Target: Surface carbohydrate biosynthesis protein
Amino acid sequence: MNLYIVVEITARELQAKAFLAGLAALEGFKVTFGHEDMIRRVAKLGTPGIFYDKSLHTDYPKLHTALSRLGHRIAVNDEEALTPIPERYTTAVTTKAVDIVDLHLTWGNYQRELVSSVFPQFNHKSVPVGNVRMDLLRSELRAIFQPRVDALKKKHGDFILINTRFPSINNIEGPDAIKRIIEAGLQGNVEVARKAFELDEKIYPKFLEMVEALGRRFPDKTFIIRPHPSESSLSWEKLADSSDNLKVVREGSVHPWILASEMVIQHGCTTAVEAFFLEVPCVSYKPYSMKGIDRELPDAVSYNAFDLEEVCECVAGNRDEDFTKLRPQWTEMAKHYITSTDGPLAAVSTVAELRKLAQVRKKIDIPFMLKTRMDQSARSLNRRFKKWLRSVAGKPKKVKDAALWKPLTQQELKQLLADFSFYDPRFAQLDVKQTYLECFQIRYSQ
Model:
């Protein structure tokens, strides 16, 4: 059975989804893996199989409907569903989206119950498995980060990691990018989205002030600022230029950075959850709050600081006992949101569910398939021709430093898979072949 796995954001997903792809290949799947946009094109031209996607919101039903007509089964594990704003999340999901998805893999019971409360017909398609990103944080796989952690500690010494989450206010596409999305209703309920925007608008300057104050009040400590992938780094770089102990970084997965740090400071960010799993102290800075808009889980598994002085108390080590006392409470909360907190890895449970889905037969709309393949073939030739022209002219396509997807080579992916051989030696024996632009086939030949 063919399995198509998409990656949207390299720093967020690549390593975890490579593990999932490798595990699926070891279980007999013929895996096509790579850049989100490219995988969509390959799936429209390729043999029907399972399309493993990262969202079921807004613009996805059209894509999923087309793929379903081509004979694909649609499986979704929403990458953005760990810390949803309930009303905003459920209104961004439509009946059409629910009807076309064949398998809904949820982070945990919380997400399953949230969606089923609005779409009860979706309950029988929903299975709590966790998410493969959390697998990497568990003791079974955490060793994958150790070489990188050691390198970061050697380069930066002791540091506190500050993760920002303000793409709504400080978007890389410009200040009006998110406003346009909100007004178009592409983030669900417009009123709820507006409130979330207004809350971020109040917190963003406070967060800037907090970072500047920490650098000034703790001159002997190093603070590393890591902007959200969709966020502009300019304001943070300007802040760092004014202080010797503030640095801005945007390289690689966040997980080694968390492990290498003494503490994480954030606001409403999934890195709070990741820090909890990695057993690194984490502070949620909440200078403002709004009921129904605050992201519950990051706050529920971290120490909540409501003003600058409280953050400083944490940085100074004066709240260490509180962190220890609160951890059992945080653990119980995490289990409700994330099924794979303990027990089977999310990747193992996911592959088991995909094997069941592989038994489902889908009817192919032949006329639609022929038309789609003609159209996609023409587009594919056009893209390859443009790439060839750029290579002849000696002008390769430039990749922005903040690009969500970073170019990946066949050898890099093969090494990425081989790095998991400590979990299963067969990962080093997986065959990797590039089949399209930023797309790779992964197979296991026994």
Remarks:
- Residues 2-135+345-443 form a domain with the Rossmann fold fold (CATH 3.40.50).
- Residues 171 and 231 are 5 Å apart (CA to CA).
- The first helix runs from residue 10 to 26.
- The radius of gyration is 22 Å.
